Amino acid sequence: MEPPLTFVEATLHDLDRIMDMEAQGFASGNTELREVYERRIRTFPQGSLIAFSGSEYVGCIFFEIWKESFLPVAEHFALGHDILERHDPVLGTELYITSMTISPAFRGKGLGSQIFQGCINRVATAYPQLTSALLLVNETWVQARAIYEGAGFREVVRFKNFFSPDGMTHEDGIVMRCLIQRN
Fold this sequence. Notes:
Strand order of the largest sheet: 1-2-3-4-5-7-6
Number of domains: 1
Order of helices and strands: EHHEEEHEHEE
Number of helices: 4
Mean pLDDT: 91
Distance between the termini: 28 Å
CATH topology: Aminopeptidase
Radius of gyration: 15 Å
Low-confidence stretches: none
CATH superfamily: Gcn5-related N-acetyltransferase (GNAT)
């Protein structure tokens, strides 16, 4: 039996591990730069989380807090966007999940759902003004979409040809949203 998952705030010392996960989890045309993660960690450590099973690194997830917009705009989701453009932990009411990836050794074990929901709950508890959560997913990432749909997320808008993983293929981006449930 696997030890229970624990979540810790990422630090700058975790950047090599985070970048390894980024390279293993996303096609090269869909990866963030190290500087983007460094700024996220410095700006919002409470939304920069690493999951462990015992002492083993399972994955990571990153958040921003935005002011909710009825219909999201594609430019807000661009790779490399600066967290400071929209992040507002005081007045923001929407949790934007910027990235989540699972170590290949832990994929297919049902941990993605646990990490996803556990981290959302952690951040939502720390920021009680949050009323909804938002994310962007590639139309081809069927397993990720199943995790999100299982957590109550539904498609709100589709960005045609948003992703270009190899510089040639174009794939739609799907923005999904759900209400944050309080216990």
